[in-house]
Amino acid sequence: MTDRYAVFGHPIAHSKSPLIHAAFARQTGQDISYEAILAPLDGFADSLAAFIAAGGRGANVTVPFKETAFKLALRLSPRAERAGAVNTLSFDRDGMLGDNTDGAGLVADLTHNLHCALGGKRILLLGAGGAARGVIEPLLDQQPAVLVIANRTLGRAQELAGLFGRGVSASAFEAADTPFDLVINATAASLAGELPPLSPRIFGANTLAYDMMYGRDTPFLGFARGHGAATADGLGMLVEQAAEAFYLWRGVRPDTAPVIAGLRA
Ligand code: ATR
Question: Is the pTM of this model over 0.85?
Answer without folding.
Answer: yes
